[in-house]
Amino acid sequence: MRTLITGAKGRLGSRLAERLNHSHEVTGIDIDSVDFTDFQAIRQTVRTLKPELVLHCGAMTAVDECALNPDEALRVNGYGTKNVALACLEVDAAMLYVSTNEVFDGRNTGEISEYDPVHPINSYGYSKMVGEQVVRDHLRKFYIVRTSWLFAQGGNNFIHAILKRAREGQPLRVVVNEVAVPTYNYDLAEAIIKLISTQQYGIYHLVNAGRASRWAFARKVLDLAGFESLEIEKISAAEYARPSTPPEYSVLKNSAAAALGITLRPWQDAVQAYLQHEGLLIS
């Protein structure tokens, strides 16, 4: 299958390219080669390559940066996604759009199903909601994949930040009332590969199993990395000042993919696998 991946230098895009390279005819693009916010540029690329599938991983994902630059977030995540969708429409390509738990407002303290109403409360979530909507408006053959709290090999993320502070002996204060599902990019990539093989289009929640607060996530990381005795102060989201306001509760429920036999392991096991891969697992 001819497959185009946007954001191919990112953590998820690069992993998908690596895993699909043997079974798909993969072309990866990134901002330095083709800017998907330029309609004519992405249109010409898609016309030339004539992909059967486009995996749209490219995005502005720095949540606080989106809060500080909401127009730019909308331009990239919303209108840029529209450009990709319109280009797909011209060549009848299927499209997979990677979205987020932050399209929800955080008021549902249970599990959020795929077709529950979205209501973002920050600029990042709003821009990704717009991206979802333009995909649904323009395409018939699409997958919208929502995920949450992605941690990836080889990059700065929550796990790296927590361990860095632990090694430096800095005090740790972590939010206890922000709850979602930590998700390993390797597991997400495998789930996406299984999903696209089904050609069962629709909206999907692909996250590792379970739920965690930011505090519980940090506690698990420290325990596995040999910092069991290190204390973490529990704080509320209101005590942690940042430009963006994340949803407090956004636990995504994998119903649609599970019905196709696609499930992800518990997040605790995924964190352990990640740390082992990084050479950071102690216990």
Question: Keyphrases for this structure?
Answer:
two-stranded parallel ribbon; Rossmann fold; alpha/beta; 283 residues
Characterise the protein shown here:
It is a single chain. This protein is α/β, with parallel strands linked by helices. The chain has one domain: NAD(P)-binding Rossmann-like Domain (Rossmann fold), CATH 3.40.50. It has helices at residues 11-20, 39-49, 63-68, 70-91, 123-138, 158-167, 185-198, 214-224, 267-277; strands at 2-6, 25-29, 53-56, 94-100, 111-112, 142-147, 150-151, 173-175, 179-180, 183-184, 202-205, 212-213, 233-235, 251-252. The strands form five sheets. The protein has a six-stranded parallel β-sheet with strand order 2-1-3-4-6-11, sandwiched between helices. A two-stranded parallel ribbon has the order 5-14. A two-stranded parallel ribbon has the order 7-10. Helix 1 links the parallel strand 1 and strand 2. The model has no long low-confidence stretch (mean pLDDT 96).
Short description:
With 283 residues, the chain is an alpha/beta fold. It has nine helices and 14 strands.
SSE blueprint:
Elements lengths: L1 E5 L4 H10 L4 E5 L9 H11 L3 E4 L6 H6 L1 H22 L2 E7 L10 E2 L10 H16 L3 E6 L2 E2 L6 H10 L5 E3 L3 E2 L2 E2 H14 L3 E4 L6 E2 H11 L8 E3 L15 E2 L14 H11 L6
Parallel strand pairs: 1-2, 1-3, 3-4, 4-6, 5-14, 6-11, 7-10, 8-13
Antiparallel strand pairs: 9-12
Q: Write down the domain tally.
A: 1
How many E-type strands?
14
- According to CATH, the fold-level topology is Rossmann fold
What is the typical, i.e. mean, pLDDT? 96
- Which parts are unreliable, with pLDDT below 50 for 5 consecutive residues or more? none
Classification by helices and strands: alpha/beta
